[in-house]
Amino acid sequence: MKIDLPPLICDYLCHRALVDRHPAYLHLDRQGTVLAAGGDLANYRVEPLQTGAPVSTVFDFMEGLLPLEDDACHLECLQPQAGACIDAHIIPESGGYWLLLLDTSEEEQRRQAMQQKANELALLREAQARQLSGGNASTANVERLALPFEAAGERKDLAVLAVGLRGAAAAASTAAPAVYLEQLFLLRRRLAAHFQARAGVLYRQTGDLLMVFFGLLTAATAKEEQALKALMPILQDEWGAAPEKQLGAGTRLRPALGLASGPAIVGLDQTPGAAGLQAVGAPLQAADLLQQRAQPGELLIDQTIFEKAGALQDRFDALPADSVPGTGRVYTYRKKTLT
Amino acid sequence: MIKKKICMLGAFAVGKTSLVQQYVHSIFSEKYQTTVGVKIDKKTLSVESGAIDLILWDIHGEDAFQSVRTSYLRGAAGLLIVVDGTRRATLDTAFDLKTRATETVGAVPTILVFNKSDLAADWEITPAELAQVRQKGAVTVETSAKTGSGVEETFEMLVRAMLEHA
Ligand SMILES: Nc1nc2c(ncn2[C@@H]2O[C@H](COP(=O)(O)OP(=O)(O)OP(=O)(O)O)[C@@H](O)[C@H]2O)c(=O)[nH]1
Ligand SMILES: [Mg+2]
């Protein structure tokens, strides 16, 4: 690409882009031997630099990187034991390579501060979700918990996900009971953890059913979006390509999914021995109805979820009116088909 | 001197940095400081055939916003994929990373490291689950970057596998 700019502007931009970034370069032959070097090498603590040495003795991070095919390789934010944070570009040319180094220490500090906050929040949310799950929200726990709702009761807008593990009854009749239960429990725990790591709170798990709430914990995105985002890996490819991860490997359990949204009343039952978190309301019933009507591997959602689905809307098809009585308009998720 | 590149992979806050710090410098910090980009460390290990320089790539954690660039994995001779035993979901992240890493670097020696063994009472990953992972052919170890338990053994086990593989 050629950009037509007056030389003065070009020089100015160039200077702005490079100032404080301490550019340095090494010219390498195809074997990675240093032929020449220049720029602000001192900033990377490699001065004096001996030509004729393998580049991996100059920079540890170059170990194993060469040879490189035709494409340039960009390694962002490398932090050696000492010295600056480096953006490294390896640019192949006919006789060898150019290694270009830029100092991104300042940017690294900015990104670190942001990433630190985001990760700490995510960990906090995970811990909260774990403490609230199912019966975990005991009276003892409540004191330590910064509860995101009134323990005595509060009306909350929730996106409720109901999961039915289909094939369960069939598998139960053939598999050894102990093996079957072990598989079922593993799968339930895996699903629960998956949603808990994505701002969901596990409300109930009994037999082959799970119910998860989104919108109970504070998060940066809308509850409908959280729920749909958390469901995508499960819907797209049965949870990743790794065979270890396939849902219900061995038992052929597949989830039928119902997702509905609306106001519900949530609170804690603090009677000793009671299962802490309690909730009642229309979205719980609707999600359950949708789950019951869904085929294995299918996701059905209600009108409210659909309206908030954003860019995902065109992945859903409307079902005929009254397909699932008592839930209003219903939409089904269309899987990506191979083209 | 032989040099070998080892990559640390895993979800955020599983203990990748802590494992490297424990292994290389014998230190541990309770304070969480997330890694941006890659921290590069080095440790010389002596084996029967001489000394090896291990170049350790402590890569930032995988999370909702940043997924690990495969360019970081180029030239890796071995992988440690780290799981936080107290957070079940980090195991699924580990499987994802393992699949993606294998696509980039091929079948290099890989160990699934179940870290935070000192917090056994809080583990969300059950022995049954561990058994299932092992049964599917993964090499697994349990470590504590805090107490140091299993840390040196893990790196040495990986290096042995790397030398046999090479
Ligand atoms: N109890 C215990 N805590 C650990 C252990 N390993 C790490 N931690 C703690 O877990 C937190 C995260 O550790 P890090 O080593 O920074 O994790 P990381 O995988 O490098 O994280 P990112 O760089 O964000 O991906 C820190 O607070 C550590 O103190 C362990 O074995 N036991
Ligand atoms: Mg780290």
Describe the structure.
The complex is a heterodimer of chains A (339) and B (166). With 339 residues, chain A is α+β, with helices and mostly antiparallel strands. Chain A folds into two domains: 7-103, PAS domain (Beta-Lactamase, 2-Layer Sandwich), CATH 3.30.450; 131-333, Nucleotide cyclase, GGDEF domain (Alpha-Beta Plaits, 2-Layer Sandwich), CATH 3.30.70.1230. Chain A is built from nine helices and 13 strands. In chain A, strands 6, 7, 8, 9, 10, 11, 12 and 13 form an eight-stranded mixed sheet that branches. In chain A, strands 2-1-5-4-3 form a five-stranded antiparallel sheet. In chain A, helix 5 (168-174) packs antiparallel against helix 6 (177-196). Chain B is α/β, with parallel strands linked by helices. Chain B has a single domain, classed as Rossmann fold (3-Layer(aba) Sandwich). Chain B is 31% helix and 27% strand. The interface between A and B is large, with 44 and 48 residues. Strand 3 (73-79) of chain A pairs parallel with strand 2 (38-47) of chain B, so a sheet runs across the interface. Bound molecules: guanosine-5'-triphosphate and magnesium ion (MG).
Outline of the structure:
The complex is a heterodimer of chains A (339) and B (166). With 339 residues, chain A is α+β, with helices and mostly antiparallel strands.
SSE order and pairing:
The complex is a heterodimer of chains A (339) and B (166).
Chain A: H1 7-18, E1 24-29, E2 34-39, H2 55-58, E3 73-79, E4 86-93, E5 96-103, H3 105-132, H4 139-144, E6 154-166, H5 168-174, H6 177-196, E7 200-206, E8 209-214, H7 223-237, E9 254-268, E10 277-280, H8 282-293, E11 299-302, H9 303-307, E12 316-318, E13 330-333
Parallel strand pairs in A: 9-11
Antiparallel strand pairs in A: 1-2, 1-5, 3-4, 4-5, 6-8, 6-9, 7-8, 9-10, 11-13, 12-13
Helix pairs in contact in A: 5-6
Chain B: E1 2-10, H1 16-25, E2 38-47, E3 50-59, E4 78-84, H2 89-105, E5 110-115, H3 127-135, E6 140-142, H4 151-165
Parallel strand pairs in B: 1-3, 1-4, 4-5, 5-6
Antiparallel strand pairs in B: 2-3
Bound molecules: guanosine-5'-triphosphate and magnesium ion.
